[in-house]
Every structure is written in structure tokens, then in C-alpha cells.
Amino acid sequence: MEEAPAPEAVGGRGKLAYKFLLWFMLISLAPMGVVGWHLIGISQGVLKEESLRHQQSLAVGFAETVSNYIATFKTVLTIASRLEGFAQMDPVKQERNLNRVMQQHAAFLELSVFDAVGRETVRMGRFLQEQPQMRDFADQESFRAALDKGEYVGGLVRFQGLYPTLTISVPIFEAVGGQTVKRGVLLGRVSLNGLSQMLRQEFPEKGRSQAAVVAGDVKDNFLVAHSNPSEAFKADAHLPEEVLKVILTQAARHGGGEVELKDGSRLLGAFAEVKDTGWIVYVQQPTESAYLAATQMRAQVVRVLLWVVVITLLLSLAVAGHITQPIRVLQQAAERLTAGQFEDLPEMTLTNDEIGDLAQSFIHMSDSLKEKTGELLHAKDELTKYGRDLERRVEARTRELKAAQDELIKKERLAAIGQMASVVGHEIRNPLAVINNSIFFIKTKMTKEGILDQKVERHISIIQSEVKQANSIIDEILTYSRSKELKPEVLKLNHWIEEMLSIYPFPAHITVAKNLDARDPVVYMDPEEMKQAIRNLMGNGIEVMPQQGTVKVGTQIVDRSWVRMDVGDTGPGIPQDVLEKIFTPFYTTKARGTGLGLAVVKKVVDRHGGRVEVATEVGRGTMFSLFLPLHEPGKAPSAPAAAQASRPAPPATAPPAPAARTEPPQTVRTHARPPGA
Fold this sequence. Notes:
Blueprint: H1 16-81, H2 91-104, E1 108-115, E2 120-125, H3 141-149, E3 152-159, E4 163-176, E5 179-191, H4 193-202, E6 210-216, E7 221-226, H5 229-232, H6 241-247, E8 254-260, E9 266-273, E10 280-286, H7 287-290, H8 292-338, H9 354-427, H10 429-449, H11 454-481, E11 489-492, H12 493-503, E12 510-515, E13 522-525, H13 527-543, E14 549-557, E15 562-569, H14 576-579, H15 597-607, E16 611-617, E17 621-629, H16 640-645, E18 669-672
Helix pairs in contact: 1-8, 8-9, 9-11, 10-11, 13-15
């Protein structure tokens, strides 16, 4: 066998080389080492003082920066409170001015206006719901302090549990008769992430100099900012307790010194108090970095002593080399056996001594271990093979059981829906018709007698709307649960769509975009059932576009057997976690609804032998594509299900994604309390 390079000497006799090395080093290196160590100690003391002075100046400077940072946003709020509309508490003008403030200052996460009694009248934010609930701050310190003291700075919290934010509030004044009257309070929540970014620019190197801004006491401190922003964004962000005890218990406004952490590492730290806030700016540097010059000096001393060390090593290793060599070879062979390498073991010399006996025993052990390992590997391969076969059988059986269970549940639900539909059609619809007729009679009677005021008319309209909603729910349930026979007709699809769109009650804020295939596809379908499906899709699209939007309707002949009918919108799109469930009966994300609208669409298309596909993009819209069989000219019409059996499957092409749009500028959702609310 080829002899490999010998590793470091081990074993009892191998340590003899280290004994020789130790004595030679004590004799030759001790005096020089003592002198070098003394010089290094002197340099460390000087560097420590210089580093502390530098860190203190950095801490004081950034404390002023933090104070100016807070003062800047306080000044912005003060100037904003003097703008037009604030003294008169005009919500419309306040919203316009606050929107401009938020666009100019990205650090503002939320702005609110409170009247003189603490009621919130205007609230704006970057992450608010569409209609946030107005709040009462009469008992809040941020409101009372702004009115009594002229300003409030405090209320440190973590936005979304991570990002530090600060609350600042200022009073709103109005000059009346030469006097200043307080009309309310302007409150803003400011993100403090900018402080972390400024610290990061000042201290970019991780693991060396670091800085932080902290507020609170030793047990309950709040990490406001950190040169490593990820540290400040933790839910339980805080500085080490040893550091806090030093910087938060000092009476001086600034200072510094050496701090020892629990893990034994030592730091040079300096602190400075931020004016008028009680916050502390803390700057630290590992002693290794502070003593870098001393370390370099130590390296010079080590290089001077290197030649002596080399000579010492050579002398000691020359004496013990012939003793440790066989042991090094044996150690390498043992390491290869540990790694499972039974071949190409290094050649071992069988000397006539204890080391030779040990080598002989090692060779017998390696042969036995090789044989046993081969048997274990063969057994492992067999077990793995049987395990994989068992897993495949279990997975196949599990899929079969799940499919059978899903089918059984679906049949039970449909049976229950059918029973409920018969009861609903008889027991609820007739009373609703009576209510509707009675309301119509009351409205007509009161109109003729001239006693119908606006409030009564509004409530009558509400009753009629709710009756219409109830009838719509009944229609959806009956449509989904009943399996009436299809009444298909041969229709020109474009003409049928044009007629349906002409009578559909589109709201004024909705635009209809048509893109119909000029080849005018002909289909064989039930016009009433398909009309219900298309109206469901358009109704869903209109509901998700309450302000403004476009309903897209189009047709396209895919090939000689299939036509695709598209119905889309430019709404907010469907989230991925909801997309997989939209065709599930009774699943809905609306506050009101049965969850059967899209289930009806899928059922109708399936009954016509087609397929439904969905393409959606969050923030851009959704497109539903209905694939239907084309009617072949000259061929007698047949039932859609039968036609499906005689033609190829619909093409597996994804429907067209919603058209790309230019992204609008960032907007802020607002909600104002009506005057006098």
C-alpha cells in the first residue's frame, strides 16, 4: 500500500517532542516575550482611551442627529396644522393637505385629526382598511398632552409587531377676536426605520463598530434603531442586559467605558443622551478592533520570535520523529476506517515491538469490520426496497379512499341541497311575494294620499331590496340543486352576447369592453342556463369594482371544434389561496352570499360539455374563459353531453391574462367622519 502523509503526532511517546519544544521555548523566548507583552499592554491602554474619545464624539453627534430627526417631523406637523382647513375643521381640505404631507414624507405611516373633545374626524394611513373605524382619544395621553403642553412626543410601539414607530401630536389653533383658540389635535405616527438606515450608513461593517438608540429602563427597554436594521426589527429587540445596566443607570449625559458580556467577550462602549426624549445613543466597538494596532505590534513580535520557534520545532521533532511515525500511519488508517474506506489503507510496518503488535491487531480488526459492514449494507438495501414498495401501495390505497370519500360527501351535500330547495321554494318564496305585493300596495296608497315622506320611502326601498336579495339567493340555490333537462338551441354566439349585454343593468361607473370574433361562432347551447352563468360572472366582476372598472366580454374560435367565451374584469384579482376554492359550493369571501355563483357557472359549462379556466393577477384583474363545443354546419344538433363524447378535449391553453396597465401612483385610503357626526 502507498504510505500517505503523516498527520500530527499522537500517543504517549509522541508527546516527548512537545516536552523538548517547551523547554527550548522557555529558555529562548521567555525574556523576549515578557518585554513584548509589556509594550503591547502600554499600547492597548493608549488605544483604549483614544477609541473611547472617538466613540463618545460619535455618540454625541448622532444624539443631535436623532433630536433633529424628531424635531423635523414635529415641525412638519406644526406647519401642516396651520394649513387651510385645519382651524375650521374642514375634513375635505384636511384630507387634501394630509395626503400631500404623506406623499412628501414617506416616514409618516398614519395621520389623524381630532376635534376639541378627542373625537377622530379624519384618519389617513398607508395600511388602513377601506373604511377604518373612527376612534375616541379623549383619555389618551397623546391627545391631552398636545392640548395642555403644546406638543406630545412618545408612544413607542412596533408597527406590525416589528418596526419601531413614534407618536407625535400638536394642537390645532384658530385666531378668534385676537385670541388663540385650540380647535383640536393633529397626530402622526412616524416610522423610525430612517434612524436605523442612518446608523447603517455611519457603521456599515457588521461585527465591528455598531450603534443603537434605546429608550426605557434596564428591565423594559425599547430598541429604537440599530446599525444592523434586522436587529431593530425583531419582535423582542433589545440590547444585552450588561450594556443596558451601564448606559441606563448613568447620571452623566454622556460617557463610556469597557463592558464585559455574558459570553466573556469585551466591548468598548460610549453613550450620549438624546435631548428632551430620555433616549440613549450607544456606540460600541469590539476590543479586538480597538486594539488592532496592538495586535499588529504583537504580530511583529511573533515574527521576530518565529525563527527561534522553527529551530526549536526542528530539534524536538528530529528527536521524536522516528518514534511517532508508526503511530501516525496507524492513526491515518483508523480515520479511513471511520469514514468507511476499507480499501487503499496506508502500509504499516510490523516492527518487533508493542507498536508492531498493535498494527497486526488493527489489520485483523479492519478485515472483520469490512465483512460485517458489507452484510449490513446489503440488509439496508433490502429494507429500503421493501419500504418503498409498501409506501407506494399505501399512497395508492389512500388516494382511492380519499376520492371515494369526497364523492360520497358531494352526493350527500347535493341530496341535502335538493331537499332544502323544495322547502325554500314553497315555504319562503310565497311569503316573499306577499311581502313585495303588500309593500307595493302600501307605497301606491300612500303616494295617492300624499303622506309618503322620504324616510318611509327609503325604508320601503330597503324592504324591496332585501326581498329581491332573498329571491336571488333562492334562485341560486334552486339553479344549483335542480338538474332540469337542457333545452339547447343553435345560436350565433356574438348576436346572443350582444342581446344579453343590451339588457344587463350595468352601473354608471362600469365600462364594457367587447372583443368578439369576426368569424361569428355558432354554438348549440341552452340560452337561459348559459345566460345565468354569464350574468353571475359579470355580477361578480361589478361587485369587486365599486368605484370604477371595466367588464371585458369576448369570443374567439380556438380550433375547428371549440370556441372560447371570455368574461373578465379589472378588479383586485383573486389571491392564490382563494383561487383553488372558488368553484366549491357554498364557499364565499363576501359578507353576504350563498357561495353558489361560480359553482353554478361550472355546473352549467360542465352540462354543456365544456371547461372553465381562470387567469388572475392580484391588483390587475381576473379573466374567466368558458370553452364550449362549436356547432358543425350541416350536422344535426345533438345533446351537448353526446357532442362532447364525439370530439377531442378542449385545448389545454391558458386563458389570456388581464391586459397590462400602467400602475397608478401610490394612493392613501382615507375615511372622514361626516360633519356633525
